[in-house]
């Protein structure tokens, strides 16, 4: 025992022995690669709006106006369901898309990612099986696994998740939830047509499986025909619908919404009371004023024009600089597209060399739950201007050409169906 006044050497506090299992993982090498090193000159990764397009001045004026009119009341806690005028505005907007939604069934949340987390808490117990598209959004993979889900990947084709393979999976396995992104799917940019949407919904309903529809970028359409959400289709009244303002405005706002059947109202309330209580009232009031005044539509016109040009620049550059045997999806909107290389080429090898030359993108294995996707990657087009997109694609194309020549891969090694 140490004598009084004697300095005792204390061992460093070992937090690694105190972490909960869900937070103690070392981190997958693919996940670490996805973060990059922060030194890329050209960012073709991330589904993030361009900061230069943020409506900063307009939003500053709106914030000032609502604070001047409502005063300190907007700095209080708000209702757990969300600011009623904003819920009504969103319900009306969704109704215009064909989804008969009451504001009573719509909840304002702190962005789409917290919405995924809420759905995980709400529906998933340890060992439950969840169907996801393959490839799918990598942060959804993380959330569902956080709550102990076993993930069952269903491949996509040119129209998204294949209904026939979903049918096979649900006939074979006891599944709790189907998670899908029917419009501008992340990472592929694909959109389901009406017939495919009906088929997916019919299969899920027949097997008694809940559906979570993520419509994170559905407002970012640059061409083609609008498609109604699953929630708007016959039999879609039980679909959980997730949306966000982050992609069409700016991510720092941290506001989204979840539409859920009335029977889930009490469980959602209990969960929110124990987690985030409610979304920020000031932000909700400001975004309601921004939307109601017509500023959102004005902003979306600008964003759609800009992003549409950037998508065109990306595709033109790929056509000019990517070697034969490389394929890619042809989105009508969203924030990214999906590239498929000849089978022998590993996109991580291409990525590491691209980063050395100042270009960053997202490797395909990040978006697969089963270790697949080695010869695929995601290119995002919303952060960079056209000339920088073209420069980045040219660099990537040169690297792919070098890998093909150096590894002996041939054009015929490319998959017969490129999605």
Secondary-structure blueprint of this entry?
Layout: H1 29-35, E1 42-43, H2 56-70, H3 84-96, E2 106-109, H4 112-123, E3 129-134, H5 138-146, E4 150-157, E5 160-161, H6 163-172, E6 177-180, H7 194-206, E7 210-214, E8 240-244, E9 256-259, H8 265-273, H9 281-292, H10 295-321, E10 327-328, E11 336-340, H11 347-356, E12 359-360, E13 362-363, E14 376-380, H12 386-407
Parallel strand pairs: 1-12, 3-4, 3-6, 6-7, 7-8
Antiparallel strand pairs: 2-9, 4-5, 8-9, 10-11, 11-14, 13-14
Helix pairs in contact: 2-9, 4-5, 6-7, 10-12, 11-12
Task: Name the CATH superfamily classification of the largest domain.
Answer: Type I PLP-dependent aspartate aminotransferase-like (Major domain)
Would you identify the regions where 5 or more consecutive residues have pLDDT less than 50? 408-419
Between the first and last Cα atoms, what is the distance in angstroms? 69 Å
Instruction: State the helical fraction.
Output: 25-40%
Brief overview:
This protein has 419 residues and is α/β, with parallel strands linked by helices. It has helices at residues 29-35, 56-70, 84-96, 112-123, 138-146, 163-172, 194-206, 265-273, 281-292, 295-321, 347-356, 386-407, and strands at 42-43, 106-109, 129-134, 150-157, 160-161, 177-180, 210-214, 240-244, 256-259, 327-328, 336-340, 359-360, 362-363, 376-380. It has twelve helices and 14 strands.
């Amino acid at each position: 025992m140490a004598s009084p006044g004697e300095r005792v050497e204390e061992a460093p506090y070992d937090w690694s022995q105190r972490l909960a299992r869900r937070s103690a993982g070392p981190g997958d090498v693919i996940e670490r690669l996805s973060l990059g090193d922060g030194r890329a000159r050209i960012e073709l990764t991330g589904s993030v709006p361009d900061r230069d397009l943020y409506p900063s001045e307009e939003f500053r004026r709106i914030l000032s106006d609502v604070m001047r009119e409502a005063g300190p009341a907007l700095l209080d806690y708000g209702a757990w369901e969300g600011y009623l005028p904003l819920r009504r505005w969103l319900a009306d907007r969704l109704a215009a898309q064909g989804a008969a939604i009451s504001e009573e069934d719509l909840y304002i949340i702190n962005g789409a990612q917290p919405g995924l987390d809420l759905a995980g808490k709400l529906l998933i117990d340890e060992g439950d099986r969840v169907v996801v598209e393959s490839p799918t959004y990598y942060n959804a993979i993380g959330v569902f696994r956080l709550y102990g889900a076993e993930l069952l990947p269903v491949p996509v084709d040119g129209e998204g998740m294949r209904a026939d393979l979903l049918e096979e999976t649900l006939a074979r396995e006891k599944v709790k939830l189907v998670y899908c992104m029917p419009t501008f799917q992340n990472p592929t940019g694909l959109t389901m047509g009406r017939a495919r949407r009906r088929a997916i919904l019919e299969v899920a309903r027949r097997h008694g499986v809940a559906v979570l529809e993520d419509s994170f970028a559905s407002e970012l359409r640059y061409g083609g025909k609008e498609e109604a959400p699953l929630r708007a289709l016959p039999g879609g009244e039980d679909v959980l619908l997730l949306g966000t303002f982050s992609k069409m405005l700016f991510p720092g706002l941290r506001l989204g919404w979840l539409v859920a059947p009335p029977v889930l109202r009490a469980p959602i309330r209990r969960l929110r009371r124990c987690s985030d209580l409610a979304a920020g009232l000031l932000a909700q009031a400001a975004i309601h004023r921004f939307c109601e005044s017509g500023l959102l539509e004005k902003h979306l016109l600008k964003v759609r024009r800009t992003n549409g040009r950037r998508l065109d620049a990306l595709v033109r550059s790929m056509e000019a600089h990517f070697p034969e045997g490389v394929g890619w999806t042809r989105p009508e909107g969203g924030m990214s597209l999906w590239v498929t290389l000849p089978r022998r080429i590993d996109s991580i090898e291409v990525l590491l060399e691209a980063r050395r030359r100042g270009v960053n993108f997202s490797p395909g294995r990040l978006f697969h739950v089963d270790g697949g996707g080695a010869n695929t990657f995601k290119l995002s087009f919303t952060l960079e201007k056209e000339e920088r997109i073209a420069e980045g694609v040219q660099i990537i194309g040169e690297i792919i050409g070098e890998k093909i020549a150096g590894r002996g891969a041939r054009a015929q090694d490319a998959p017969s169906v490129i999605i």
